[in-house]
Amino acid sequence: MGMMASELPFYLQKGMVFSGVEVGYEKARYCVFGVPYDLTSSFRPGCRYGPEAVRRFSANIEANSYRKGFDISTAKIADLGDIIFEYKLPKMLRKVEKVVEIISASGKSPIMIGGEHSFTYSCFKSLAEKSSCIIVLDAHFDLRDEYLGLRFNHASYLRRLVEKFPNKPVAVLGVRGFDPAEEKFAKDHGIMYIKASEMDDRRRVVKILEEAVGHGRPYISVDIDVVDPGFCPGVGNPEPEGLNPTQVIDLVSILGAFRPAGLDVVEVNPLFDNGATAALAARIIFETVASAEET
Question: Residue ranges of the domains in the chain?
């Protein structure tokens, strides 16, 4: 679309740097950006502070992936800063879409830190031609037709994506908090999903991932509330009986090997966190990149 890197300053503002390592845009293979927005949050707002918290912990946990023997500081990750705030959601959605378009057109992989889950819509929309599917790790389906009077928000973004891209495979892993109508929609539209209580069936998990990804590159979206709130209390909509951190890192390590077209980690809410949630969010990004670099 003729988008150029020189346009990025119109959409972003910089602060703390992810992983504590400065990398120039031209040399980067991955571009991190934050979306500090939570105006459609329905229970515990505060994930607008998520990008800053994840950056802080990314610079203070070990950069080495002990699983892969890979030092994340060598991965050439540029931090572009945060999307400049707009009150109206449609304007923010368009900004995120344009930033991802620019990053992708430069041959780099975008990594979004949220912020609420609504913006996965923008990321995937901009990467749809490069993504074979979308893989979501989430406690919720986010398939409501509308929620609290809104047809577009953090609880409905995936339904809007399915409507926009009906032929793109979708898989939701770790789901456990949903309305029966959402599960019916998932079944009616061929969405693959595994409930949290079924995630120990590794063979089934791998089969679904391989079926969804095919021979392409997935887009990966991690809502941190997929993890049990006993491990990660810093979320807006906690649901008991979630996954443990090792299960999630195992999953993103598998997915990273498919060289994802893009990644997001969203809904980190430091107002309810003891640091564990932000630290795990940073580790999820580290391990996904480490797996992609190993491939």
Answer: 5-294
